Amino acid sequence: MSSPALADNPHFLRSSASGPNNAGNLDVNFKIAGLGDNVTITVTATADATAVYACRNNGGNFPSDPKKTQVSGPVSASGDFTSGKNGQVSGSLTLSPPSTTLACPGGQRRVLVSVSYTNVQVSGGGDTASIPGTFSRTFFNI
Predict the structure, then answer these.
(1) Quick one: pLDDT at residue 66?
(2) How far is CA 42 from CA 5, 39, 75, in A?
(3) Is residue 20 reached through a cis peptide bond, with omega within 30 degrees of 0 on the bond before it?
(4) Which of 8, 21, 49, 126 is the most buried (most CB within 10 A)?
(5) pTM for the complete prediction?
């Protein structure tokens, strides 16, 4: 005796994160099954992020006492994805570093010094997948 196949039971088959890339963004990749044919689902990626910004002069150097700030907080990205005939969706969402209001003096510009993401999750259709680990990158040592 066989049991009926379950339909419209969204669940994550895979979830992963890669990065941060050169811009400090983290790509969150996923595959969801159990959606049914041609179903649109909203998927959201979230994380706790910390970014350090500093002022760098036009010569590419940091002053001996650089103006800098650290910004922490939750970041998120969402998108709508539509399943195919197999009831699955594969996709990617991009998380960006938290923004800052750091203002640099004349002759200097704001740069991202480092970024770190923790507690990365992707959710959709009533299911949530956690992506373990800390994803960080340092661009400048100041």
Answers:
(1) 81
(2) 24, 10, 17
(3) yes
(4) 49
(5) 0.91
